[in-house]
Amino acid sequence: MADSKVETISRLAQWKIENFGPCSYKKSDPFKIGIWNWYLSIERNRYLYIRLFPEASRVSKEQPPIARFILRVSSTGASRRFYISPIHERLLRTCDDFFWPVDTTFAGRFIIDVEFLDLKICPLNGGEASSIWPSDGTLQSVAAQSTLRCLARMLDEGIHADLTIHTGDGALRAHKAILSASSPVFQSMFHHDLKEKESSTIHIEDMSRESCMALLSYLYGTIKQEDFWKHRIALLGAANKYDITGLKDACEESLLEDLNSGNVLERLNEAWLYQLHKLKKGCLMFLFDFGKIYDVRDEINNFFRHADRELMLEMFQEVLSVWKPM
């Protein structure tokens, strides 16, 4: 029919009805919003019933839509009247899933508008429905992923690299701007008239090339979990030396996660050396509150020969607090 076409723009659909009698039924042509084809239909009984439903297809069967929408019916002519629906949110599969009864005597020419506020895909195997349209959070996530890909290329391919880093067993190329934005120590090196600024070279010879690459991967936002775990002691030292607070915190949390009798004394020493209060407290609790000190009796003598006096005093105080008489 001539008046079955629906016009669409963005998330809006408009159906202009040219001729609708007192006892009639009409169905629109399909129109596309999102990934689905849709239909509108109207019929009059006591009320004017308006239905919205997706076209029966493989897409609507495998990815049924949850639609959040508003309907508006308006007459044409000089005395134009409007009927606006509440906001509906429904899982729509067939024409029986939704109808809106409008108590009106509209006949002849009128207009039906649909505004889709959101369209989500309902997962057939359960779980949370996901919107097909990017939200602010989704857009930020996409932008962040794109930025990380660019940074990864800059590091891997040395795109416009302006800095050479000499490590204990090799050299790496990097960017002054990235290092300066990540560390006040690096920023100071390149800002003041130091030899690093003039030569565009820095020496990090207390790190291997592999562990320094892990440091750069962290600063560029591309580090892999397995590389972080493998080099976290070296990364902790670099984070402390170059005042990279986020990395230092991440290393401390990681070193707490796999605390055991085989590494607790080493971790306690690292905690004391780098002033990691949370890790130090965890190590002392592990040893004394949980009685694991008995598991490291063979190693404790060697530990005390090299431990800082203040650390030994703190351990002694911990012993007293745990073993104080009730």
Fraction of residues in H or I helices:
40-55%
Please state the CA-atom Rg, rounded to the nearest Å. 34 Å
The biggest sheet, with number of strands, parallel, antiparallel or mixed sense and barrel status, is:
7 strands, antiparallel
Mean pLDDT: 89
Instruction: Give the strand tally.
Output: 15
Top CATH class of the largest domain: Mainly Beta
Judged by helices, strands and strand pairing, the structural class is: alpha+beta
CATH fold node name of the largest domain: Apoptosis, Tumor Necrosis Factor Receptor Associated Protein 2, Chain A
Distance between the termini: 92 Å
Number of helices: 13
The best one-word shape is elongated
- Beta fraction of the residues? 25-35%
Supply the CATH superfamily name of the largest domain. Answer: Apoptosis, Tumor Necrosis Factor Receptor Associated Protein 2, Chain A
Number of domains: 3
What string, H for helix and E for strand, traces the elements in order? EEEEEEHEEEEEEHEEHHHEHHHHHHHH
Give the uncertain stretches in residue-range form. none
Second-tier CATH architecture of the largest domain:
Sandwich
